[in-house]
Amino acid sequence: MGTQQVSAPPCAPPGPAGVSGPTSGVIHVNVRHTAGFTVIGNHLSQHRGLSLVAVGLAVHIQSLPAGAKIGIKRLAERFPESETRIAAALRELEAAGYLHRSRLRLADGRVVTRTVSYNQPGAEAPAVAVPQQRQRQRTARPVAAAPASPPAPAPAPTPPPHPPSAPLPVHGPAPTARTAPPPPLPRPSTAAPELHRAAAALLADLRRHAPELALAERDVEALAPGVAAWLEREARPEDVRRALTADLPVPLKHPAKLLRHRITALLPPPLPGAHELTPVRRAGIVIPLQNCDHCDRAFRSRHPGPCRDCRADAHLAA
Q: 186: cis peptide before it, omega within 30°?
């Protein structure tokens, strides 16, 4: 009886004091935050269609202040994940409605990426009526501050109507519509069916070199006269293809509009003729060459006939 039973299992250590909960699984020890916190909905933290990287990236983006940089390279410097995984996570958040990215052209011509983060996709933001409330407060202050006066027998004057409040500013992308119509598409000086066919074939072949330039048939027919004008000015097809496919923006939303702009803005001038490349003489007069009628020697003269030596011999013989 005095032998110690070493095979008996030891007692489980007691849990932390003051913590009650289930005997298995996670046990939460929550402390109320008073500063430096972000409210995250369970629809995001427990989303079954998003990967763990996408959920964590969404939580990080929602915790950032407005105007913070969240480009792929910036996030790759901040986290150990690669740019490929971060780009895939951003696409997941866009598909789920937590992010919206768009290209925006500023007034100075620069193109930037505008990212909007939604903490609850599909829910409409409450309308803000702060200017109207301030207007009511400004009109109500004089009445509240005025001293009480005995009731007058005359009726109170009718207050003037409030001016209509200005509409609230709409925060959105700056308008990019043109104030003037775009310049017309260049066209060849003569109607040449072979130039039109070659231009249409060149446009349809662009998708082999740049898949984002896959044009519809109606776009090919509309842009073919502009490319035909290039070919009429003796531009080589490879030069035209290089000018239309170099430095394409990412993402490319309107390939036909981009090609129309490049065809119009980068149109080369016609090649000069041979007479235009001839240097102009200082005197402005060029005496042509003539062949002598007797010795067939070349000499400069305005009129054909014998050369100077043959004329001198003829004069001595006479």
A: no
Say whether 67 sits in a helix, a strand or coil.
coil
Q: What integer is the mean pLDDT of 95-124?
A: 86
Helix (H) or strand (E) holding 299: strand 298-300
Instruction: Map residue 157 onto helix, strand or coil.
Output: coil
Using DSSP's 3-state secondary structure scheme, residue 255 falls into helix
Strands 289-291 and 298-300, sheet pairing: antiparallel
Partners of 116 in the β-ladder:
100
Q: Rg for the chain (alpha carbons), in Å? A: 42
Q: How far apart are CA 45 and CA 30, in angstroms?
A: 17
Report d(CA 285, CA 314) in Å as an integer: 30
What local confidence, expressed as pLDDT, does residue 103 receive? 85
Q: Mean pLDDT over residues 83-101, rounded? A: 91
Tokens of 4: 């110690």
Question: pLDDT tier at 134 (50, 70, 90 boundaries)?
Answer: very low
**The two structure tokens encoding residue 237:** 């097809």
Is the Cβ–Cβ distance between 111 and 103 less than 8 Å? yes
What's this model's pTM, rounded to 2 decimal places?
0.35
**Domains of the chain with CATH codes:** 42-117 (1.10.10), 193-265 (no CATH), 288-318 (no CATH)
Name residue, tokens 């000015």: 233
Residue 271: beta bridge partners? Answer: none
Q: How far is CA 86 from CA 58, 186, 225, in A?
A: 11, 44, 44
Asked if residues 144 and 110 have their Cβ atoms less than 8 Å apart, the reply is no
d(CA 211, CA 30): 53
Q: How many residues are present in the chain? A: 318
CB 165 within 8 A of CB 132: yes
User: Which among 29, 72, 66 is positioned nearest to 53, based on CA atoms?
Assistant: 72
Task: Please report which confidence band the pLDDT of residue 146 belongs to, taking 50, 70 and 90 as the band edges.
Answer: very low
Rounded Cα distance between 281 and 217, Å, is 53
